[in-house]
C-alpha cells in the first residue's frame, strides 16, 4: 500500500529575519495509513515548521511532499486550500476556535468550504453533530468556547478536524495547555479515532503523552534523529480508570477526615 | 461556497458583534433617513408650489406694468403707471382666442360691516375674474359687466372675510362699507387657500375695477391684466398678440409692461423649490458618504481584529474569494439593512414633521429605491478594500497574528 504522506529531503528556511533561519534541514519520511505518530523534540527544533508543511499551510523551501499521491508543489493557493479542506484535519496549537461562535458552528466551519459548498445546511449540521458525539460533546453543542473548559475546547477543535473525514489528522501540541487528566481524555479520543483507521500525527513535548502513540519521531535542529515504534503503548481507557480510582481514593480519605 | 452559506456566515459574523454592527449601521441609517426626509420636504414644497401655480387658473397670461430691458429689470413690477383700463379693453376687443379677461386693481383697505372692522385686500376686477382664476362662487353670484359699466357699489367677498365679518349669518345681501361707501354683497367665493407668496387668498373683497378706480382708490392705472387663453396651445400666440397690441398702442415709446405666461411663472416659482431640494439632498448625501466611510473604517478594523478568524478559515479550506465575499456581504448587509431602516425612519420622520409642523411633505418612491440601492452601493465600495485585504492574507501569517 502506498504511504499517505511521503516527504523527501524537506527543507524550510525562514528568510524573514536578518539572518535566515534553517528550521528544517532535510527530513525524509513515509507515513502509512493508520499510523499514529508523535513528533517530539526540544523547543525550536522545527516541529511546528514541519507540521505546517505537512498540513500544506506552508510550502517547503526545498524537497518534495506527496500527500495521498499528490505532489503539492504543483498546486496553487486555491488547490492547496481544497486539499487542506478535504484530506487534512488540523488541530492547532491553542485550539483556534472562532470566538462567540457555538461549538456546533465551529465544527461546521470546514464543511462550509471545499467540495461541501453545495451541501445543504441540514446535512452539514447533522454531520457536525455526529463529530461532536465522537468527541463526547454532543450535549454542549450550543455552548460558546468561553463556556467550555480547555479540554472541551480542544475536543471541539478535534471534532472540527474530523468533520470532513480527513486522511490525516495533524495536531500541534493538542495537550500542551491541558492538565494531565484532560490530556488523557484527549488522547483517548485520538486512540479511538486511530483504531477506526484515521492516520494521526501529533506534536508533543511530553514523553508520557508520546507513549499513547504507535510511533515516535524525535527532531533535533531540523533533522530526525530518532524514529522508533512504541513498544509498550499506554491505553487511555486504562489510564483513565486508574485516575478515577485514585481520585475516588483521595475523596475517601478526604471525606474520612472530618468524621474522625 | 454556496451563496446561502456565505450569507449565513456573514450573518453569524454580524450577529457575533451585534452592538458594533448596530453602531456601524447607524451611520447609514442616519444618512438615508436624512436623504429621505430632506427630499420629502423638498418635493412636498415643490408640489405645493405647483398646486398653487395651478390654482392661479388655467392657460393664464398676465400683463403687468414695468418691463425688462436689456440692462435688467427696470422700475420693477407695478411701479409704472402705464397700464390702463383701455389697454384691457383693447386686448379684449382685438386679440383672438381669449376665453376670459379681467383688469385688476389691488389695494388694502379697512372694511366695516356688522359693527366689525377688518383690514383686507380690496381688489377691483372684472366680471370674468372668478372664471379666469378658476375660482367658483360658494354662494350668490359675481357682479356683471353692467355693474362695471355703471360703477356699481357691489362686491363679492372671500371666505376669510365672510367668516370674520359675518360669523353667524349669511353675508349675501348684506352691506359692507369701504371708505364709508356702502357696497352690497352679491356673493361669497369658495375657499382657495394660500398663494405662492404665502398670503391668504380668501382674505379679499372684490369690487368692479371701475368703482375701485373712481370711488375707492382714485387711481388712473391698473395693477395687472389677467387673460385666459382659449386653449393650452394658443397661449404663446395670445401672448405674442398682446405684446404686439400693447407695443403698438405705446406708439414707439419703450415697452413699459411685461407679459408672462403661467408656465413662466410656474418655472420661476418651482425653481426655488428645486434649488432647495437639491441643496437639502446634497447635505443629506454628505451624511451618506460619512456613513460609508464609517462602514469602511469598521470593516478595516474588523479585518485586523479578525485576522485570526480569517487565518482559521483559510487554513481549513476557504479560498481567498470566500473570505472576500464574506466580508463584502457583511458590508453590504450592514449598509443596506441600515439603508432600509433609514428609509423607515426617514418616511416616519417626514410624516411626523408634516403632522407636527404642518409642512407639506411628499415621500417620492423613486428616492426610496435610490436610497436603498445607493446604500448597498456604498456598502460595496466601502467594503471592497477591507474585504480584498482580508482575502490576500496568508493563512500561516494570519494564524500567527496576535
Ligand atoms: N515565521 C518564522 N520566521 C522566522 N523564523 C521562524 C519562524 N517560525 C519559526 N521560526 C524559527 O524556526 C525554528 C523552528 O521553529 P518551530 O516553531 O518549528 O519550533 P518548534 O519545534 O515548534 O518549537 P516549540 O516546541 O517551541 O513550539 C525556530 O528557531 C524558530 O525561531
Ligand atoms: Mg511549535
For the largest beta-sheet of chain A, the strand count, sense and barrel status come to: 6 strands, mixed
Reading off the top of the CATH hierarchy, the class of chain A is best stated as Alpha Beta
Please state roughly what percent of the residues of chain A sit in beta strands, choosing from under 5%, 5-15%, 15-25%, 25-35%, 35-45% or over 45%. Answer: 15-25%
The separation of the N and C termini of chain B measures 28 Å
Distance between the first and last residues' Cα of chain A: 65 Å
Q: Looking at the structure, what is the overall shape of chain B? A: elongated
Query: What portion of the residues of chain B fall into strands of 2 or more residues?
Result: 15-25%
CATH structural architecture of chain A: 3-Layer(aba) Sandwich
CATH topology of chain A: Rossmann fold
Major protein interface? A-B, 30 and 26 residues
What layout of secondary structure does this protein have?
The complex is a heterodimer of chains A (260) and B (402).
Chain A: E1 5-14, E2 21-31, E3 36-41, H1 47-54, E4 62-67, E5 70-71, H2 77-87, E6 88-91, H3 103-108, H4 121-134, H5 150-162, E7 168-172, H6 180-195, E8 199-203, H7 207-210, E9 215-220, E10 223-229, H8 236-259
Parallel strand pairs in A: 3-8, 3-9, 6-7, 7-8
Antiparallel strand pairs in A: 1-2, 1-4, 4-5, 9-10
Helix pairs in contact in A: 4-5, 5-6, 6-8
Chain B: H1 3-16, H2 18-55, E1 60-65, E2 67-69, E3 72-74, H3 85-94, E4 98-105, E5 108-113, E6 116-125, H4 129-132, E7 137-140, H5 145-149, E8 154-157, H6 159-165, E9 175-178, E10 181-189, E11 204-208, H7 209-216, E12 224-229, H8 235-250, E13 257-261, H9 262-305, H10 307-315, H11 320-357, H12 365-392, H13 395-400
Amino acid at each position: 500500500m502506498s504511504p499517505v504522506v511521503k516527504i523527501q529531503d524537506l527543507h524550510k528556511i525562514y528568510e524573514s529575519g536578518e539572518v535566515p533561519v534553517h528550521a528544517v534541514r532535510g527530513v525524509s519520511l513515509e507515513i502509512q495509513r493508520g499510523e499514529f505518530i508523535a513528533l517530539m523534540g526540544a523547543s525550536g527544533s522545527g516541529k511546528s515548521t514541519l507540521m505546517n508543511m505537512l498540513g500544506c499551510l506552508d510550502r517547503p523551501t526545498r524537497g518534495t511532499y506527496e500527500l495521498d499521491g499528490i505532489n503539492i508543489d504543483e498546486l496553487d493557493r486555491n488547490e492547496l486550500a481544497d486539499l487542506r479542506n478535504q484530506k487534512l484535519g488540523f488541530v492547532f496549537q491553542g485550539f483556534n476556535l472562532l470566538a462567540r461562535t457555538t461549538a456546533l458552528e465551529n465544527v461546521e466551519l470546514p464543511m462550509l468550504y471545499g467540495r461541501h459548498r453545495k451541501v445543504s445546511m441540514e446535512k452539514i449540521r447533522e454531520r457536525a453533530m455526529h463529530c461532536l458525539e465522537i468527541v463526547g460533546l454532543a450535549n454542549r453543542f450550543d455552548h460558546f468556547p468561553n463556556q467550555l473548559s480547555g479540554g472541551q475546547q480542544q475536543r471541539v477543535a478535534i471534532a472540527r478536524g474530523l468533520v470532513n473525514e480527513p486522511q490525516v489528522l495533524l495536531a500541534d501540541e493538542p495537550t500542551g495547555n491541558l492538565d494531565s487528566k484532560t490530556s488523557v481524555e484527549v488522547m483517548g479520543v485520538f486512540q479511538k479515532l486511530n483504531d477506526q483507521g484515521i492516520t494521526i500525527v501529533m506534536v508533543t513535548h511530553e514523553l508520557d503523552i508520546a507513549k499513547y502513540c504507535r510511533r515516535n519521531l524525535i527532531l533535533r535542529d531540523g533533522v530526525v534523529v530518532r524514529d522508533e515504534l512504541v513498544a509498550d503503548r499506554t491505553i487511555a481507557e486504562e489510564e483513565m480508570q486508574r485516575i478515577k480510582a485514585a481520585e475516588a481514593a483521595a475523596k475517601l480519605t478526604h471525606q474520612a477526615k472530618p468524621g474522625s | 461556497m454556496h451563496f446561502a452559506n456565505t450569507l449565513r456566515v456573514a450573518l453569524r459574523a454580524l450577529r457575533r458583534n451585534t452592538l458594533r454592527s448596530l453602531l456601524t449601521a447607524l451611520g447609514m441609517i442616519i444618512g438615508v433617513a436624512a436623504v429621505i426626509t430632506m427630499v420629502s420636504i423638498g418635493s412636498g414644497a415643490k408640489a405645493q408650489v405647483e398646486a398653487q401655480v395651478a390654482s392661479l387658473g388655467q392657460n393664464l397670461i398676465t400683463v403687468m406694468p414695468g418691463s425688462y430691458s436689456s440692462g435688467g429689470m427696470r422700475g420693477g413690477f407695478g411701479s409704472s403707471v402705464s397700464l390702463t383700463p383701455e389697454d384691457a379693453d383693447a386686448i379684449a376687443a382685438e386679440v383672438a382666442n381669449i376665453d376670459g379677461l379681467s383688469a385688476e386693481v389691488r389695494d388694502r383697505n379697512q372694511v366695516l360691516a356688522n359693527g366689525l372692522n377688518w383690514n383686507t385686500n380690496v381688489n377691483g376686477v372684472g366680471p370674468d375674474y372668478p372664471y379666469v382664476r378658476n375660482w367658483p362662487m360658494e354662494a350668490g353670484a359675481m357682479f356683471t359687466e353692467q355693474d362695471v359699466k355703471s360703477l356699481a357699489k357691489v362686491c363679492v367677498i372671500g371666505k376669510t372675510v365672510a367668516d370674520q365679518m359675518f360669523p353667524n349669518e349669511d353675508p349675501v345681501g348684506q352691506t359692507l362699507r369701504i371708505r364709508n361707501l356702502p357696497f352690497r354683497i352679491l356673493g361669497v367665493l369658495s375657499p382657495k387657500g394660500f398663494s405662492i407668496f404665502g398670503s391668504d387668498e380668501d382674505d379679499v373683497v372684490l369690487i368692479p375695477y371701475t368703482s375701485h378706480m373712481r370711488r375707492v382708490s382714485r387711481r388712473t392705472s391698473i395693477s395687472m391684466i389677467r387673460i385666459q387663453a382659449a386653449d393650452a396651445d394658443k397661449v404663446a400666440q395670445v401672448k405674442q398678440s398682446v405684446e404686439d397690441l400693447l407695443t403698438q398702442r405705446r406708439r414707439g415709446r419703450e415697452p413699459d409692461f411685461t407679459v408672462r405666461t403661467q408656465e413662466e411663472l410656474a418655472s420661476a416659482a418651482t425653481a426655488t423649490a428645486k434649488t432647495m431640494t437639491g441643496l437639502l439632498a446634497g447635505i443629506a448625501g454628505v451624511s451618506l458618504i460619512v456613513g460609508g466611510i464609517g462602514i469602511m473604517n469598521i470593516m478595516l478594523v474588523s479585518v485586523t481584529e479578525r485576522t485570526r478568524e480569517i487565518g482559521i478559515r483559510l487554513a481549513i479550506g476557504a479560498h481567498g474569494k470566500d473570505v472576500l465575499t464574506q466580508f463584502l456581504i457583511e458590508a453590504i448587509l450592514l449598509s443596506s439593512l441600515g439603508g432600509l431602516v433609514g428609509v423607515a425612519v426617514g418616511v416616519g420622520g417626514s410624516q411626523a414633521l408634516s403632522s407636527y409642523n404642518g409642512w407639506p411633505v411628499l415621500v417620492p418612491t423613486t428616492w426610496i429605491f435610490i436610497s436603498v440601492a445607493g446604500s448597498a452601493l456604498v456598502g460595496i465600495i466601502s467594503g471592497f478594500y477591507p474585504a480584498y485585504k482580508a482575502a490576500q492574507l496568508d493563512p500561516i501569517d494570519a494564524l500567527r497574528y496576535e
